[in-house]
Design goal:
3-stranded antiparallel sheet; alpha+beta; 2 helices
């Protein structure tokens, strides 16, 4: 979760390793947990439960 343009937003990003120049590619940005779940479903094979297990 990041503060983007004055509002808290969930941002799905792909981080590149330093050996490839580093940086991030923003895959999507949403405002609610329900939208985040849908974004994860569309863009990855992960769900919210998978993220909780990784934390």
């Amino acid at each position: 979760m990041e503060l983007v343009r004055g509002r808290h937003r969930y941002r799905l990003t792909h981080r590149y390793p330093a050996r490839f120049g580093g940086g991030r590619n923003v895959l999507g940005e949403v405002g609610t947990v329900a939208e985040l779940e849908e974004l994860l479903r569309r863009r990855t094979r992960l769900g919210l439960a998978d993220l909780r297990e990784a934390a």
